[in-house]
């Protein structure tokens, strides 16, 4: 059996002291931890780092943890989500699992070693052993390389974001509306339309095709009535 891959954890906690304590404890047990204090900071993080499991506090500045958890479940359905909060009522738990889509709902104070065991158990589902035949997408360098490509491909920011979204989606498939939302920037001028998405996909297909063998399958295919599906195995690396 192949060894269990290292888990990448995103900790979203606005309490600075608790954030540091949990991050240090998880890091000491071999997890790769990126800790942020808000949903906005997390949005920036996940465009640069692969994340396997999210650990989310509900009381956050700006967008609250329940809304964030729900949004992550919609856009990254294969990710693990652990809610870690001081809210202890039954209604809060029901909302965490139902609305937030959490895999696990933990109430503070959390036993540190229990959190470690939960993350390891959840990790066996969300991150199976990587496929050695897969391409590697470097989030920092914005490059795609590996078996099946004759050269290293440099991606634009939107091309990278599109691939990251498809890699982490259920069946590597997302509808066009979700992809438009994911690829849209922070200003009104950066909004991407369905037509612009089609052009983005076409350019990315052409770029990948230029480095593939003549008999290779298209990297991304259209799914009628839905959107697009990624047809290549890709591992995300920092």
List keywords for this structure.
238 residues; Rossmann fold; globular; alpha/beta; 20% strand; 8 helices; single chain; Arc Repressor Mutant, subunit A; 12 strands; 5-stranded parallel sheet
Chart the SSEs and their pairings.
Layout: E1 8-12, H1 16-28, E2 32-36, H2 39-45, E3 53-56, H3 65-75, E4 80-85, H4 90-98, E5 104-107, H5 112-126, E6 135-138, E7 143-145, E8 153-154, H6 157-168, E9 173-175, H7 176-183, H8 194-209, E10 220-223, E11 227-230, E12 234-237
Task: Describe this protein's structure.
Strands 2-1-3-4-5 form a five-stranded parallel β-sheet, with helices on both faces. It folds into two domains: about 10-125, 3-Layer(aba) Sandwich (Rossmann fold), CATH 3.40.50.2300; about 135-235, Winged helix-like DNA-binding domain superfamily/Winged helix DNA-binding domain (Arc Repressor Mutant, subunit A), CATH 1.10.10. It has eight helices and twelve strands. The chain is α/β, with parallel strands linked by helices. Helix content is about 40%, strand content about 20%. The relative contact order is 0.12.
Query: Mean pLDDT, as a whole number?
Result: 87
Helix and strand element order: EHEHEHEHEHEEEHEHHEEE
CATH architecture verdict of the largest domain: 3-Layer(aba) Sandwich
The CATH topology of the largest domain = Rossmann fold
What portion of residues is helical?
Answer: 25-40%
CATH H-level name of the largest domain... which superfamily? Answer: Response regulator
| N- and C-termini, Cα separation | 25 Å
Task: Quote the beta fraction.
Answer: 15-25%
Major sheet: arrangement of strands? 2-1-3-4-5
Q: Uncertain runs with pLDDT below 50, 5 residues or more? A: none
- Principal-axis shape: globular
Number of strands: 12
The largest sheet, given as strand count, sense and whether it forms a barrel, is: 5 strands, parallel
**Structural category:** alpha/beta
Compute the number of helices. 8
Domain module count = 2
Main CATH class of the largest domain: Alpha Beta
Radius of gyration: 19 Å
């Amino acid at each position: 059996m192949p060894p269990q891959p290292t888990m990448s954890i995103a900790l979203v906690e606005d309490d600075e002291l608790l954030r540091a304590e949990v991050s240090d404890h998880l890091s000491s047990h071999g997890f790769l931890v990126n800790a942020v204090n808000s949903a906005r900071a997390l949005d920036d993080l996940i465009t640069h780092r692969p994340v396997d499991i999210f650990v989310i506090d509900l009381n956050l500045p700006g967008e609250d943890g329940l809304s964030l958890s729900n949004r992550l479940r919609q856009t990254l359905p294969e990710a693990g989500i652990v809610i870690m909060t001081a809210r202890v009522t039954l209604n809060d738990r029901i909302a965490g699992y139902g609305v937030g889509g959490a895999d696990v709902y933990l109430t503070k104070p959390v036993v540190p070693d229990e959190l470690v065991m939960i993350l390891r158990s959840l990790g066996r589902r969300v991150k199976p052993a990587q496929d050695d035949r897969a391409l590697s997408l470097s989030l920092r360098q914005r490059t795609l390389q590996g078996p099946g490509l004759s050269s290293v491909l440099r991606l634009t920011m939107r091309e990278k974001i599109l691939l990251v979204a498809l890699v982490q989606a259920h069946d590597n498939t997302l509808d066009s509306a979700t992809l438009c939302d994911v690829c849209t920037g922070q200003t009104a001028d950066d909004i991407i339309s369905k037509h612009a998405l089609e052009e983005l996909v076409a350019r990315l297909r052409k770029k990948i095709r230029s480095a593939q063998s003549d008999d290779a399958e298209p990297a991304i295919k259209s799914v009628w009535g839905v959107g697009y599906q990624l047809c290549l195995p890709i591992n995300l690396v920092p």
